[in-house]
Design brief:
about 130 residues; mainly alpha; 5 helices
Length: about 130
């Protein structure tokens, strides 16, 4: 059962990698609809935010699949992560809460995926093939 802790570690590490180390500065700024950046004249804010959310969803899905879970489960949680990440970042961009709350919500989400996976709650999703 020790791999369960590895899964949680990689979900959180993947988040840190994509939200900080690998997120380009233009995306960090332009994903907010009220941002003042010259690139927003070329690429609208929704494209930036949606791309950012898909990157996070893809990362979650890849980690889940890499840990041996079924493709259907990996894709389902990747899509859920994409939607939730989009909503959480939109709220941060709208100044509904700050960076600390934004990051806490993202980490709680990863813990939620982890609990659903290790608890067997999502076993109803049929295996691929």
């Amino acid at each position: 059962m020790q791999w369960h802790w590895h899964l949680l570690f990689f979900l959180i590490a993947g988040h840190a990698l994509m939200d900080f180390a690998l997120q380009p500065d233009p995306m960090a700024v332009c994903k907010c609809r009220r941002a003042n950046h010259p690139l927003k004249a070329v690429v609208p804010w929704g494209y930036w935010l949606t791309s950012h959310a898909f990157i996070h969803g893809g990362t979650v899905g890849a980690i889940i699949r890499w840990c041996g879970f079924d493709w259907n489960l990996a894709v389902a949680l990747a899509l859920a992560e994409t939607v939730i990440h989009w909503v959480v970042d939109f709220g941060k961009c709208e100044n509904w809460y700050g960076l600390g709350a934004d990051q806490a919500l993202h980490i709680v989400c990863k813990i939620g995926w982890w609990l659903l996976l290790v608890g067997g709650t999502l076993s109803w999703i049929p295996p691929a093939g």
